[in-house]
Structure prediction request, 406 residues.
Amino acid sequence: MRIERVLLNWSCLSISVIWAIILQNGQLRLNAYPGQAPLIPHAAGNSLWRHYAPSAPEISYQGRWDNQYISSPGLRLEFTGHQLALSFGQHTDPGVLIAYRLGRLDWQFSNVTGNSTYQFIGPWTPGINGSIASEKKSFELRGESCTVQISGVAVAADGKLSQIQRASKTVEVIGDSLSIGQYATYEGLSSWAYAVGAGLQDVEYSITAYSGICVHDRECWGNHHGQVYQWYRTCDSSPRARRIYGANPPRWDFGAHAAADLVIINLGANDDLNGVSSTDLVSSYITLIDGVHSVWPDAHIVIMSLWGDFVQRGLTFVQAPQGVREITTVYQHYRDQGKGYVHFFETSGIFKHGDIAQDGHLNDMGNAKLASHLMQWISSQFGWTMDTDGAEILHGTQYWNTEGNY
Ligand SMILES: *[C@@H]1O[C@H](CO)[C@@H](O)[C@H](O)[C@H]1NC(C)=O
Ligand SMILES: *[C@@H]1O[C@H](CO)[C@@H](O)[C@H](O)[C@H]1NC(C)=O
Ligand SMILES: *[C@@H]1O[C@H](CO)[C@@H](O)[C@H](O)[C@H]1NC(C)=O
Prediction:
């Protein structure tokens, strides 16, 4: 079966540019990111604020970050008082969009630029007036990985930060653009990987996924290395990370962070498109799984089939999945040796051609469908539960069909 060319070739750095506009069926969504956190002078020494360095242990970064606090796609913390501000360092992309929220209320949006401080929580913040100043409130921020550098946090002069209580289980997703919500409405905040991590009960999650990356260690769409190398590093694979660290980015200290209990891998789509041979893809995929298993010997590792894209055949559409033989071979390698820690999640049948945004990337519906099926499968396979909390996970999904009467 011939597959239409799937292009997964955006570099990490270009994502924020795409994120700035939302196209809906070719039309610009007006006021796509309502809200703008006010810029405030960075007042180190200003007595109205108590300042914390980005290294403060009270700040819990999510995902990977380097020693300059670049690239973590999210952070969480608790604070007292009625105000909170974050400062962004010079390695922040200009005008990059971020989502944030007070407690578990709905996501709000703002764009931010480097060398600046923004006040995210103030008297205008929904929910703040009803809260008691001395009470601990949680704050959460999410952006695209590779786009922001945190250079400080500030709270009211009589307020303080404290650490969030970590969930007891951890999920790690290792992927490429198919896992970061590329081309979906709010990118990372619309991705299946985020929806699975945020939708399971008592779970912390980390998404180590870079647009265009291969499994095999070679250059693919601007990534100088494959995940078989990059997964062990602190930083992303963007040109910016390369400017900072050169060819040898620092290693991620697995020992300093909680071990993952569940690892979900969605990789191989870019190898296929970059001419990595079938043999190299299989052997690198096995090397990656063996590496993950040696880092986290107790983790269940799930490998996913690649859905590819849909092509018209006569009067219908048929799915043209990628890497079927290779991924099956990888799974069989473990199954035949009785290594039960490797599991296979079949995506065939979940999607129809209307669930693809472009070039094999899922649209919002496709991401939501995959997350729902995968969470249900994880629950039945491993006995995990879905979170019954009612807080918003996928933002902006009520855009269509909100009419009460027709
Ligand atoms: C931020 O400051 C640094 C050094 O002070 C400077 O090199 C850089 O151009 C500034 N970036 C922005 C976006 O203003
Ligand atoms: C940032 O937000 C402001 C206010 O909403 C808007 O005027 C501006 O165009 C935005 N900039 C970018 C780069 O999205
Ligand atoms: C909170 O109270 C202040 C002072 O009364 C008011 O100006 C502000 O609009 C209120 N905030 C919200 C989100 O309602």
User: Anything to note?
Assistant: Residues 1-18 have pLDDT under 50 and may be disordered. The longest strand covers residues 306-313. The CA atoms of residues 333 and 339 lie 9 Å apart.
